[in-house]
Specification:
It is built from seven helices and 18 strands. α1 crosses α7 and α5 packs parallel to α6. The protein folds into two domains: 130 residues, no CATH class; 185 residues, 3-Layer(aba) Sandwich (Rossmann fold), CATH 3.40.50. Helices cover 23% and strands 26% of the residues. The strands form three sheets. Strands 15-14-16-13-17-18 form a six-stranded parallel beta sheet, sandwiched between helices.
């Protein structure tokens, strides 16, 4: 049995080009990061698509077999659920566009209907269950010495990926060798690919380290992410995105702690001006610049600067490029 669609989380195992078997296993033997085969039981809306291993979005048909990975998601503006919520009927949902699979227990009214699937079995390679951690990058993880541009957010969908892309482009245009990474969040490929499109090389995310999402124990997260940080020795600067908010259960605070000594510049993408104050008070970190949704208008920019005293820019506008360039080059000089 082979799947019709291999999702983005399978890219590290190259399951598209590998022989494997599919065999059901009792739930007592399931683990986070297990590769599983599921069947689409209801054709989703045409705009709901899954990423393949190259990041291309693929439309789904009823009855198609999909390979994804067991994981957990705790989105404030999307799906909540995970593989531990799957019941005896085997009914599941695809929790992310990248192919993380579990069962939805709560959803935002603004989210599309999740892809409804049913469990078929676990993927077995050479007679053993295929798990993401078995294919994650390994590294001696030397002490990080490369300066970091840290991109944080007050929530998901606050503008972090777009801002990271703009920062990457500005740095590349100024002659820097830029590496990029997304260290926390839920498994999709398009975020980190966007920074690669802007000129970063290499680009990695936590999927490369063997995690479907970063809703995992902190020691598991730290071990996995250290393997990524050892891959950036040739870069002049790292643009590091921390997905969701550092206060959400994605290990964002642990990611910041791992990078802290090398952070040269912190950009906070905010969903609204008051959220900037909330993050500062709760997380104890002040940004060098505020961007994101809160800065979409001049009124938002003025309120951010009035409430916090920090500079704010709408990075979607061309006139923001010059002051951003000045801030970044000063921070890295």
């Amino acid at each position: 049995m082979r799947a019709d669609i291999h999702t983005a989380v399978t890219r590290i195992a190259d399951l598209e080009n590998r022989s494997y078997d599919v065999e059901p296993r009792p739930k007592t033997e399931w683990e986070t990061g297990d590769y599983v085969c599921v069947r689409c039981i209801e054709r989703p809306d045409p705009e709901v698509r899954l990423e393949n291993p190259r990041g291309r979005r693929v439309e789904l048909m009823e009855g198609e077999l999909i390979v994804g990975a067991l994981g957990t998601r705790r989105a404030t503006r999307g799906f909540v659920g995970g593989w531990r919520d799957v019941e005896d009927d085997g009914r599941m949902d695809v929790l992310t566009g990248g192919g993380v699979v579990g069962r939805v227990t709560s959803t935002s009214p603004y989210s599309p209907t999740p892809v409804r699937v049913e469990y078929v079995g676990h993927v077995h390679v050479d007679g053993a269950v295929a798990r993401m951690r078995d294919y994650g990058l390994e590294s001696d993880a030397p002490t990080l010495t490369t300066p970091v541009i840290l991109v944080l957010g007050t929530s998901m969908s606050a503008g972090k990926t777009m801002s990271g892309r703009v920062i990457t482009r500005v740095l590349v245009e100024n002659g820097y060798r830029v590496a990029a990474c997304k260290l926390t969040g839920a498994g999709t490929y398009d975020d980190v690919l966007a920074m690669g499109t802007a000129g970063a090389d290499p680009v990695y995310d936590f999927v490369d380290a063997g995690l479907p999402t970063t809703v995992v124990p902190e020691d598991t997260f730290r071990t996995a992410v250290r393997s990524l940080l050892g891959r950036f020795e040739t870069a002049d600067v790292i643009v590091a995105e921390v997905g969701a908010s550092p206060l959400e259960p994605y290990n964002g605070d642990a990611a910041v702690d791992l990078l802290d000594d090398q952070v040269a510049f912190t950009l906070l993408c905010a969903s609204d001006p008051y959220a900037v104050v909330g993050i500062e008070e709760a997380f104890g970190r002040s940004p060098d610049l505020v961007a994101g949704i809160a800065t979409n208008t001049t009124a938002g920019i003025e309120l951010v600067e009035q409430l916090t005293g920090h500079p704010a820019l709408n990075l979607q506008r061309e006139e923001a490029k010059e002051p951003l360039e000045e801030m970044l080059t000063a921070a890295l000089s």
